[in-house]
Description:
Layout: E1 32-33, E2 36-37, H1 38-42, E3 44-47, H2 48-53, H3 74-91, E4 95-99, H4 100-103, H5 110-128, E5 134-139, H6 158-177, E6 182-185, E7 191-192, H7 200-220, E8 226-229, E9 239-240, H8 245-254, E10 261-266, H9 267-272, H10 277-287, E11 290-294, H11 313-325, E12 334-336, H12 347-374, H13 376-384, H14 391-399, H15 402-412, H16 423-431
Parallel strand pairs: 3-4, 3-12, 4-5, 5-6, 6-8, 8-10, 10-11, 11-12
Antiparallel strand pairs: 1-2, 7-9
Helix pairs in contact: 3-5, 5-6, 6-7, 10-11, 11-12
Cofactor: Mg(2+)
Enzyme class: isomerase
GO molecular function, one term: magnesium ion binding
Amino acid sequence: MTEFFKDIPQITYEGPGSENEFAFKHYNPEELVMGKRMEDHLRFAVAYWHSFAYEGGDPFGGRTFDRPWFGEGMEKARMKADVAFEMFDILQAPFFCFHDLDVRPEGATFAESKRNLEEIVDIFAEKMESSKTRLLWGTANLFTHRRFMAGSGTNPDPDVFAYSAATIKSCMDATIKLNGANYVLWGGREGYETLLNTDLTREADQAAKMLSMVVDYKHKMGWDGTILIEPKPQEPSKHQYDFDVATVYGFLKRYGLENEVKVNIEQGHAILAGHSFEHELALAGSLGILGSIDMNRNDYQSGWDTDQFPNSVSEVMLAYYEVLKAGGFSSGGTNFDARIRRQSLDPEDLILGHVGAMDICARGLKAAAAMLEDGKLESARAERYADWDKPANAEMLENGDLASIQDRVLTEGINPEPRSGRQERLENLVNSYL
Length: 434
């Protein structure tokens, strides 16, 4: 045991009346929601990078946190793993997620980095034997090191492409060894800064080749996990190829991968793309590619991805409503891709950030389930489109052409009047479940 979280108790459910800040007020893992345990609905995961690798910096200032595991070398990485699993146990977290660079030091060569990762993965495997926490997904950090400044799979340098492919294989091997449920590809630098030096066609083909190799390796290894792409529109690249769900789906269709890959959608990225979180979730559900989510929020007065813990029940409710409508998570879950603020220095802040977020998500899930089970919103939606179910209108949509439809309009004297969309009524309805 380390001393970092000393005197912090394991977090348990005490109910809405509890005044204990180190207790869940709304997240009861065993509570049944729509016939399913709350823990199995939400499938919470702790993000290794924000919780244990983030040093408290921002674009204008460096490290503010003082953590005993900060520094180079495997001894520090082993201590970080000890602290991580102590925190998982305190939260009774079902899952965690990691990049390779989060958990091991960078080696002087690829071979050394690979050995470092394998050693930490062995430590994880040993710790998981006595912990309830499993791996939701693994991924490779192909954006921090300067070698990736022009991308990884899309890089104009074939050696960087090769290094990236080798790194992905090592991270997939780690994920498979730890029985991870998913593997995520996040193209933090897969984009361009200027078209003056960019070949869009070549870079798209390279990205498709990399993704195809990932899919092929999954099948070669007989792994039944899910491959996920995480859309993000900008930051740091001026334009990134995985801009949003629609863009990712277009890419998958272009290269025949739409049945092999799903998406991991982040709230903050949806906002940066000019969408709402629920829009991206609804579209992914409609397209059949909703896999998993990163739950966080942005500061709406800032123009970048601030990765704060969620604190709005209404926003979370609308998100989980779309998740439930899509059938809920199978291999995916709710990863807290969120970090405490750079002034939140204490170990207690790290625990309580997760406790509050888990409670917010529980409240949002229950409200979403109540709204879905009640059926009033879906009934109102169905009523708006009900005339399309009439035989003549269904026939028009199935077999109509411009000439026959014009004849119908002339013959029947069709002259439609606008109908109310009833938005304010529906907003009032939604708020009644909070």
